[in-house]
Amino acid sequence: MSDCIFCKIVNKEIPATVVYESEEVLVFMDIGPIIKGHVLVIPKKHYDPVTETPDEILAEMHLTAKKIAAAQMNGLGADGVNIMQNNGKASGQEVEHIHIHVIPRFNNDGHHW
Ligand code: 5GP
Ligand code: ZN
Question: What positions carry the motif Histidine triad motif (predicted)?
């Protein structure tokens, strides 16, 4: 998808701070973090929404989110983690390339959904 901002990140046409990468997925820092350490897990291939995304890709995305959550809790010292995935404008989705938000949470960090 030539006009997709996340495809552009995959293709290195725009910069991102990449924290993890495999053959199928890319993890990078969210440009507007809800909490410091907020990252996004995306498939390198363009899919959207979740109902059109192959099971094996979803499985790898979620297993990657689990690894990132472990790093946030064990490395960053997060007390909790939000793992979140929006589909459609009504849900608050802004970028139409499937992505999982992995957000470290700290006791009394002041954020409320
Ligand atoms: P959504 O609302 O679609 O679930 O979340 C999109 C997320 O992508 C937002 O948290 C937003 O800050 C992030 N985002 C949008 N554009 C860019 C970008 O160009 N680079 C990065 N790293 N994150 C982006
Ligand atoms: Zn895309």
Answer: 97-101
* C-alpha 84 to ligand 2 mean position (Å): 18
User: pLDDT, tens digit, for every residue of 39-98?
Assistant: 999 999 999 999 999 999 999 999 999 999 999 999 999 999 999 999 999 999 999 999
Question: Are 87 and 101 in contact, with CB atoms under 8 Å apart?
Answer: no
101 is catalytic: no
Which one of 46, 99, 111, 112 is the catalytic residue? 99
Q: Could you report the predicted ipTM of this complex, rounded to two decimals?
A: 0.99
5-105 CATH pick, 2.40.50.140, 3.30.1450.10, 3.30.428.10, 3.50.50.60 = 3.30.428.10
